Amino acid sequence: MLRHRFKRTGNFADVAEAISVQERAVVLTPMGDPLLPGRLSDLGNSFTSRFQWTGSLSDIAQAISNQQKAVTLTPEGDIGLPDRLNNLALAFLIRHERTGDLSDISKAIPVLQQVVGLTPVNNPNLPLFLANLGGAFSTRFERTGDPADVAKCILARQKALELTPEGHENMPTLLMNLGNAFRLRFEQSANLSDISEAISAHMKAVDLLREDHHDMPSILTALGNSCSSRFDRTREPTVLAVSISALQKSVQLTPANHPDLPDRLINLGVSLMRRFELAGELADIEEAVSAQTRAIALTPENMLHATMLNNLAVSLMRRFGRTGNVSDVVKAEKAHQKAVELTPEGHENLPSLLTNVANSWRVRFDHSHNLGEMEKCISNYKSAATCTVGSSLIKLEAAQNWARLLNTHFPMSPQVLPAFDTTLGYVALLAGLEQTVHGRYIRLQSVPPYVDSTPSIFDIQTSLAALFPIGIPTPITNLVRQLQSKHRDLQNHEGRLRMFESLSYLTGKDDGISEERARCSSSWTAPPGLALNAAAAACSLDRPEKALEFLEQGRCLVWGQLNNLRTPLDELRSIDSNLADRIADISKRLESVASSRATTHTKMSLSEKIALEDESHSHLKLAQQWEELLKSARAIPGFEDFLKPSPSSALLRHLPDSGPIVVINVDERRCDAIALLAGFEEPLHIPLSNFSLDKAKKYRTDLKMLLRSGGYRAREKEASTNLGGEAAARPIKPVNRARRDGDVVHGVLRGLWNDVVKPILDNLGFSVLFPRIWWCPTGAMSFLPLHAAGIYTGSKSESILDYAVSSYTPTVTAISNRVRNYRAIDKSVSGLFLTSQPNAPGATSIPGTTQEAQSIQSLAVENGARVLKLEGSDVTAGDCLKHMENFSSVHLACHASQDAADPLQSRFLLHMGSLNLATILQSNLKNADLAFLSACQTSTGEEKLSDEAVHLAAGMLAAGYRRVVATMWSIGDQPAQEVASSFYKYLWSHTHTHREGDSDGGFDGTLSAYALHHAVQQLRHRLDNSESSLLTWVPYVHFGY
Fold first, then answer.
1. CA–CA separation, 870 vs 875, rounded Å?
2. Which residues, in sequence order, are CB contacts of 280 under 8 Å at separation 6+?
3. Which pLDDT score, from 0 to 100, does residue 182 have?
4. Cβ neighbours of residue 853 under 8 Å, at least 6 residues apart?
5. How many Cβ atoms sit within 10 Å of the Cβ of residue 431?
6. Where is the CHAT domain positioned along the sequence (predicted)?
7. What Å distances lie between residue 1017 and 747, 788, 800, CA to CA?
8. CA pair distance 1012, 259, nearest whole angstrom
């Protein structure tokens, strides 16, 4: 009774008296008395309660000692054993919170697992034991960052909740703890469904309690923290407002002498600091510092922990950034130093702490411009990035700051390239195989942008002029200047978006500002990726081979993973067939679960959520098994680099003889081409001194706006210029006369020719006519038609089409692997499967597909080829897939739909359903050769994932096709028929020329790039050189070998 009263009131005398009474009871109880174990356990609980108040290690040592004695004296099968084991485990966990000793968690978890195993399902205490087990996993996760621990935590807490009847007094606490677990996982995964689950659970918990309930402050704190975490990712002001309100109420409801008050004040300070960052109100940062200073003053010296001091230091540095008061810097430095001292070696939070120390030095450098302070800043970022523990996302942010600041301030440092190497390693970890493909793309988009520049006042005020036509009020101008200083670490466009959020919040002029923010957002261009930054740094140091390795390591990560899962294992099998078989089995299972596993949402039932968490945990175990198998393979002599990114020397050993691969890197600092030619031992570095990232972005934006205004988004009956005539009316908005007769396309193609393609050709010095050339563009270049670069007006017209036959490849590795692993197509499946889908439900009619397929079928029959044509409702998605397995080549004349957010859900629209990439990837296409995608935008990527090749063409390559014909934007129904017909005529006629005596009627897929070049030239020469004519033939592209 005394101990329970102490928990409610915090009256220290109660717990002291409880211990005194219980010690006398233990002394008076003889050994062997069945009451002794229970009394020892009660005494241990009281020592635990006092320890939580005093922080005295002798108290928690006494608690553990008494609990261990209680367990030892309890006979096996005793009904009280689970409770006593539970008390022992909790004592270990509580001591860990004080000392940071991981061994205490290691002792607690198996004890709690034993407790759960001993407790029947119908035992009313089982939910509590499951909750405690979840807490232990949560604690270990916070120390080590092992995703398996947070997954086990969530599963245990969900099961605890499922076993708890509605209305039970523990329900609010169980909901709170489950929400906390989802928040922890969100902070590692950046998956918004996790933070939605967290906030939903916390709100339900709040609704279940009276305001005066003693647990209400804890639950309000949990809600406030979850909303704060969501705000950090989404920047939703309403979410931040909920956070601050909940945390303020939590503090108000907490007694002045309560041991949790300091932590609640710290959390409130964090959210107030976030509002300062949003609105720039000095009062918010003053209140944040005041709350956190009070928290530390209320905390006994031996109870201080690093997080409290770290958060105070961050708030002090924010205030210094606003006021310039040097005393804040001094206080922050002392707080950071103490926080580092209190953080045990190997603690999960160490990278975060070191990052904040680095941030402080960076703020100081911004004021002093003293390079010594920048050196300290970089040193701390490096220490954070190279920690052996901690969140990969935090270490990635530290690593990219280490690399980019080093490259900015000390560009000749020998540490620049190792820093970028470390950074790209974390990017790969971020998109791990334990996630679904969709989840990996979300993680890649969460990589924080870095630009060491400040939004210009002129640029921002120009945008605001539309909102204040009479003149921008002076207070708004002053506010913009304040916010400009605050957002100095954001890139120009992102900084403007943040500023519009702040202005909307402060001025109440929400409609206009929201409209302007939307306009800004629609024209936003993703910053260049980390791999591109790294490659530019390597080129600056005249290390093109390292630039190539950076680009191969840091781009197209998800498709690269899919290709790794499909890597032939013949060499490994000859050494260790059992290991090869195990790798093949795990590969198939990983590939399947990555594309099929559903994601949770708040409206699901709890049992459905538990089932999904079980699936998620199984997926995680598969990924861990995969990593262990890779370690085993790499331990075999000769397999040290098994499934690692290929070094430059390995890529150069396996190149096509028919022409070079040209990688084009575009970065803010410089642009370069890297050409790889068979027989050369080093890449050829070609600086593109007249080209820039700004030009690439401008060309991309100009084309995008032109295509949008013209509705070039889907294959239509009259989606392009009639041959020899005017554009016909279409059900979508036509290109207006001014834009159609303008110079957008001509300007883009001319600029690409003069500044990019011609300088590359001049350096290559081709000695043969029409060699192959594989373009491997990066970043903003991925959206530009390099294959059509040229001057198409005037007497000096020339273009790439006059000199070479162009193809594209997502990576150099994709072509190198094809060369290295070449094998002939099995003649039993050699042939062409065609399907036309002129009237798919929900899509516009494209009747020309019927004639297109018939024409190709007739050509195949004439040439004695094995061919199958099915139209409309004659074929289901399943049938289509089966025929794709039985025919080496496929021609799909239909509508297509790309899903950039989840590329495996990109699909081809059929009369009888749709065929998505996920399904295609799971099929057996080992003899796949050519895929002709006579649909629209099948090679159009996603701007925010410009280096991930999230389009159907790349997906078909990943599925196994060696070469793909695709389109960059919409194609007209009539031109599509003509291109396809010319393409196949060329293939069959030239195949027969090269295969004398071969009468199987098949075609040579290696000629497909030449066939497309020929077909496009045929179409081009029948048209004039107007903008609309260029838009008709330019979209056709060839991918692959």
1. 6
2. 322, 479, 482, 483, 486, 502, 506
3. 96
4. 834, 835, 836, 869, 871, 891, 893
5. 22
6. 749-1040
7. 20, 11, 12
8. 74
Looking only at the bridges linking them, the beta strands covering 963-967 and 930-934 are: parallel
Q: Which residue has the tokens 């590939």?
A: 591
- Bridge partners of 1040, per DSSP, are 963
DSSP 8-class letter at 757? I
**Ranges under pLDDT 50 in the chain:** 451-463, 466, 486-497, 509-527, 713-715, 718-741, 996-997
Q: How far is CA 418 from the centre of its chain?
A: 23
The token duo for 987 is 């293939």
Other Cβ atoms closer than 10 A to 701: 14
Task: Give me the DSSP letters along 556-609.
Answer: SHHHHHHHHHT---HHHHHH-HHHHHHHHHHHHHHHHHHHH-----TTS-HHHH
pLDDT digits (tens, 9 = 90+) for 352-378: 999 999 999 998 898 889 999 999 999
Q: What is the pTM assigned to this prediction?
A: 0.80
Token couple for 53: 């108040």
Q: Specify the residue for token string 């563009």.
A: 777
| 839, amino acid identity | N
Contact status, residue 869 vs residue 834, Cβ threshold 8 Å: yes
Q: Alpha-carbon distance 320 to 334, whole Å? A: 15
Q: What is the CA radius of gyration of the chain?
A: 32
Task: Supply the pLDDT for residue 345.
Answer: 79
Report how far Cα 866 is from the mean position of its chain's Cα atoms.
44
Q: What three-state secondary structure class fits 820? A: helix
With residue 247 as reference, give the H or E element that holds it: helix 237-253
What pLDDT sits at residue 730? 22
